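Q: What would this chain look like folded?
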Amino acid sequence: MITWELILALAVYNFIMYVTPGPNNSILTASGIKFGFTRSIPNVLGIPTGHGLQLALVCLGLGTLFIQFPILLDILRYFGSAYILYLAYKMFGSLNISNSEERARPLKYYEAILFQFVNPKAWVICSTAVTLYYPINENIIIGTLFMVIMSTIVNIPSISIWAYGGSVIRQYLINEKLKKMIELILAILLIATAASVFFYNS
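A: My prediction, written as structure tokens:
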């Protein structure tokens, strides 16, 4: 049954999970700094789309696979960390400004969707949300729609903060040397994010 208490509890859980640092927010911050908020919008929209699909699959029973076969999360960790390293390479490439601007591009909508399926943190968030907050004795379709809608409503503004914050920082990067330094730091942060995903333990 869906109650106001459940709605509030799930909203708080979703906000904490989505607004705190993680692979998605690291990539969004880097994208905001490198390309600005507007060009990062496909990434911002792709994340809740992919996550919503994940959540629906977990609600429909896919989550039990991770309980029966925990090695699946390990496989996702390996693919997820490798993909973040690939994104770091694609996003930054050479630290030469002219070359990197030509070669780099923000994450596309479908790429952000696909990334959710190799993001182990996203799967853990889905599994935990369904375990703790799925409405008891509710029709499976209504219950699944409830979980996905709640996720999307909270997800978009929560992760947008990171992309917008990056775009604000971008406005102050007039000095080319400072810009190169920031890009190097972001590249290192993405590599660190890849390492955290690789060693992620739910």
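The CA atoms of residues 45 and 109 lie 7 Å apart.
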